[in-house]
Amino acid sequence: MRRPTTALAIIAIIVVAVALFLRSNRTDEAAPSDSASTTIGLTSTVTQVPPSTEETPTTTSPPTTAVSAPIGVPACDLYDEILVSGSVMSPDLVEASGLAASRTTSDVLWSHNDSRGGPLLYAFSPDGTDLGSHEIPDAFALDWEDMAAGPANDGEGAYLYVADIGDNFGIRDGVVSVWRVPDVDPRQLDGVFPESLPITLQMPDGPHDAEALFIDPVEPALYIVTKSRSEAFVFKGPMTPANEPQVMELVSTLFLDAEVSGADISADGGIIAFRGYQTVWMWNRVPGQTVADALTSEPCTAPSPEERQGESIAFNVDLDYFTVSEGSMPDINSIPASP
Questions:
Q1: 265 near 271, Cβ under 8 Å?
Q2: What span, in angstroms and rounded, lies between the C-alpha atoms of 248 and 258?
Q3: Are residues 47 and 139 in contact, defined by beta-carbon separation less than 8 angstroms?
Q4: pLDDT of 42-51, one tens digit each?
């Protein structure tokens, strides 16, 4: 997310005011564990989950069978052309900071605004057909930066995860939120998801600004990638809804000489992709290999669409990937796989 200095200052004042208000209205809670002892400020925006809600809710459709990445073929060799499949038609989606392709419904993409509007996800087809905006109940949208599709913490079902992880001014104390909703056909929704669950996470070394999230369907686990030109920290965390922050683990430090503005992993877990404003990096991941191990190899570079402010990337179940820029009615770029 890039903004002029004056705008950033105004936003900082507003955000700090919101944080102070939330602190003053925080209800008394049980003392947190040692690993969450620094949880203050914006963590009060997270809806608390009673123990009974930690059961995995049922999705309306099973996940679609995913195409597997071919073993022994460099990931970037699968892609050679960039197509414009359509344009976003919703007039309200103007800061498409995150993107996810449904794992249950073909030809459905989901996105969200950056730091404007309410807790809404926008659905549309690759050709741009508007499939409506849908509210995440009980959620709070401070600085949503990315989203991903994947299973629940037990590896079952299909869900969408929305990452409230932006922290330009270091006011979160390293505590971030991820909201989980069922991955359902948006045409079955009446403008609101049937449920949502928050996942609260604590970065182990304090605040980081981050704009990239992906869900490993193999382990399964949740990953957040920080945004810095000098280095990108990759944090791994649990996917279990919980009342208190769960401490993440630093598993990789990458030197890409560019800011990471989005990320995703293929539905089979075989290709990891990060994107910057001008680059798409990819890593192959072979069966039995962890994400951290896969990231130790040198990435290749895949086709990167020219976008005004591209911050999103998403694989569908066929290994194709999509990108969308921020802005009004941006192009939907489709990069098909050729296994």
A1: yes
A2: 23
A3: yes
A4: 332 333 333 3
pTM of the model: 0.84
Half-sphere exposure of 56 (CA within 13 A, CB side): 15
Which residues lie below 8 Å from residue 168, measured CB to CB, with a gap of 6+? 1, 8, 11, 12, 143, 209
Longest dimension (CA), the chain: 56
Lookup: tokens for 330: 């941006």
Amino acid identity at 110:
W
Q: Are 111 and 124 in contact (CB under 8 A)?
A: yes
Taking each continuous run of H as one helix and of E as one strand, the counts in the chain are: 2, 21
SS3 240: coil
Q: Could you tell me which of 54, 58, 32, 59 has the C-alpha nearest to residue 241?
A: 54
The answer to whether the CB of 148 falls within 8 A of the CB of 213 is: yes
* Distance in angstroms (rounded) separating the CA atoms of residues 264 and 284: 13
DSSP-assigned states of every residue in 230-265: S-EEEEEE-----SS-EE-EEEEEE--SS---EEEE
The H or E element spanning position 223 is strand 221-226
> What is the torsional sign of CA 61, 104, 180, 94?
negative
What tens digit of pLDDT does each residue of 43-87 get? 323 333 333 334 444 445 788 899 999 999 999 999 999 999 999
Phi, psi of 41 (to 5 degrees): 65, -120
C-beta of residue 97 within 8 angstroms of C-beta of residue 1: yes
Query: For the chain, what is the radius of gyration of the CA atoms?
Result: 18
List the beta strands (DSSP E) in 256-306: 262-265, 271-275, 280-284, 300-302
Angle at 146 between CA 19 and CA 273, to 5 degrees: 145
Candidates 267, 270, 269, 262; CA nearest to 333 is 262
The span from the CA of 279 to the CA of 310, in Å, is 10
CA distance 3 to 1: 7
Hey, what amino acid is at 181? V
Tokens of 305: 């669409």
pLDDT tens across 264-312, in order? 999 999 999 999 999 999 999 999 999 999 999 999 999 999 999 999 9
